[in-house]
């Protein structure tokens, strides 16, 4: 009998934990959070105190950022992609906008690291999520069995992500919340 939260703030999780303990009930054991190479702040900055204080774990969703980290949007929006669907114009705008184009350029640089490791950009992105010691589970989707098989193979690349490679990715992407926090403290 376990339960978790999804998209709750650390304050809400701590409150639920406290109330559960006060009434001798089971507290939440996991938070389901969006986490990937482009979305890092909650898992890396906001949640660590809860990992340490109450032992809550993390179940991540969207590890491929809706397909952005697969490389499929390198040359625009393919006709059969999520961003081409009716009702996803916000996603298409995100990809084709100025920041989206800058992001794609950074991801092309990250793809060079994937090539060096002998994996796809998708596998690198999944291995990167799995490398985080506070991630207990990664929820992912696949359109085909082949895609699922390739995604599962990301497991073999986790040990290949050395500290140097992780730093190189941080430098390319320029979005490490830990580095941003440290620079704000100076």
UniProtKB/TrEMBL annotation:
Coiled-coil ranges (or none): none
Which GO terms of type biological process are on file? potassium ion transport; regulation of potassium ion transmembrane transport; transmembrane transport
Domain annotation NADP-dependent oxidoreductase: ranges: 2-172
Q: Which residues cross the membrane?
A: none
Keyword Glycosyltransferase present in the record's keywords: the answer is: no
Residues in the signal sequence:
none
Please provide, in alphabetical order, the Gene Ontology terms of the cellular component aspect for this entry. Answer: cytoplasm; voltage-gated potassium channel complex
Question: InterPro entries from the entry?
Answer: K_chnl_volt-dep_bsu_KCNAB-rel, K_chnl_volt-dep_bsu_KCNAB1, NAD(P)_OxRdtase_dom_sf, NADP_OxRdtase_dom
Fetch the SUPFAM superfamilies from UniProt.
NAD(P)-linked oxidoreductase
Q: What Gene Ontology terms describe what this protein does at the molecular function level?
A: oxidoreductase activity; potassium channel regulator activity; transmembrane transporter binding
Localisation: Cytoplasm
Entry keyword annotation includes Ion transport: yes
| Xref: Pfam families | Aldo_ket_red (PF00248)
User: What PANTHER family does the annotation carry?
Assistant: HYPERKINETIC, ISOFORM M
Protein family membership: Belongs to the shaker potassium channel beta subunit family.
Protein name, per record: Potassium voltage-gated channel Shaker-related subfamily A, beta member 2
Q: Which organism is it from?
A: Mytilus galloprovincialis (Mediterranean mussel)
């Amino acid at each position: 009998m376990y339960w978790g939260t999804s998209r709750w703030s650390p304050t809400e999780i701590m409150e639920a934990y406290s109330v559960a303990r006060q009434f001798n009930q089971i507290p939440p054991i996991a938070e389901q959070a969006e986490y990937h190479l482009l979305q890092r702040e909650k898992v890396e900055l906001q949640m660590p105190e809860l990992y340490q204080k109450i032992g809550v774990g993390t179940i991540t969703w969207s590890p491929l950022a809706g397909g952005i980290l697969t490389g499929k949007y390198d040359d625009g929006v393919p006709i059969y992609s999520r961003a081409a669907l009716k009702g996803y114009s916000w996603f298409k705008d995100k990809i084709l906008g100025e920041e989206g184009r800058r992001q794609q350029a950074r991801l092309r640089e990250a793809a060079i690291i994937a090539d060096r490791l002998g994996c796809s950009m998708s596998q690198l992105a999944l291995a990167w999520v799995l490398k985080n010691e506070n991630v207990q589970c990664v929820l992912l989707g696949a359109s085909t069995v082949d895609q699922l098989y390739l995604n599962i193979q990301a497991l073999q690349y986790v040990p290949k992500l050395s500290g140097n490679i992780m730093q190189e990715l941080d430098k390319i992407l320029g979005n490490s919340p830990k580095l941003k926090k440290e620079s704000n403290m100076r």
